[in-house]
């Protein structure tokens, strides 16, 4: 009887310790609360509502038990997370972009999700716009000349036409055109060879100094970056 009581006390003590540990595990580094801004429904690159971030810090009903920030810059923040699924724990990588308005994205294990069923964009280049899927780009231009995988997400290079495409997960996150290329901005008709003054007149906006290059805000949370090599990049406004 005495032995049974001791075992019972040990089990109760173990349960109490587990209860005390779990909240600390869930809130490790105080980072889980950073998911507050992405609570809600998200659509994949095909327009399917396939991701739900719950107010209880769950992903499609699977509880997040650990979340640690592993990197970040002006483009966004990267987290390593552990979720509890039906078959046990699974580690996932979450990238929360710094885009806002129409270009808010989250990327989980290289799959991008947006707030809306269809992409919303202001400008495009050669029919390519921010939020476009990789499959749509392939249908339009075919395989790239080369793929640069040195960074977290690939850069597709179409050398013949003089432009590059960067991706966040599986959707377009930036398009760069070069002076020797044939691509132009679809709305304004401008190329990489046009002057800053011409861009300001066409978009009724001002070129302003940024950290690494000049930029112009053009609408829908989109920006044109004026790079030092005279190339121009269509990207999102980075908070």
Verbal overview:
There is one protein chain. The chain is of the alpha+beta class and 239 residues long. It has 2 domains: 2-114, no CATH class; 134-236, CAP (Pathogenesis-related Protein p14a, 3-Layer(aba) Sandwich), CATH 3.40.33.10. It has helices at 2-26, 134-141, 196-203; strands at residues 40-43, 49-53, 58-59, 62-73, 76-85, 88-97, 105-108, 111-114, 146-148, 155-158, 163-168, 171-177, 208-209, 214-219, 222-226, 232-236. The protein starts with a helix and ends with a strand.
* Beta strands, count: 16
Supply the helix-strand structural class.
alpha+beta
Question: How large is the radius of gyration?
Answer: 23 Å
Distance between the termini: 65 Å
Low-pLDDT windows of residues? 1-31
Number of domain units: 2
Tell me about the largest β-sheet: 8 strands, antiparallel
Mean pLDDT: 83
Shape: elongated
Q: What is the compact description of this entry?
A:
This protein is 17% helix and 37% strand. The protein has 239 residues and is an alpha+beta fold.
SSE order and pairing:
Blueprint: H1 2-26, E1 40-43, E2 49-53, E3 58-59, E4 62-73, E5 76-85, E6 88-97, E7 105-108, E8 111-114, H2 134-141, E9 146-148, E10 155-158, E11 163-168, E12 171-177, H3 196-203, E13 208-209, E14 214-219, E15 222-226, E16 232-236
Antiparallel strand pairs: 1-2, 3-4, 4-5, 5-6, 6-7, 7-8, 9-10, 10-11, 11-12, 12-16, 13-14, 14-15, 15-16
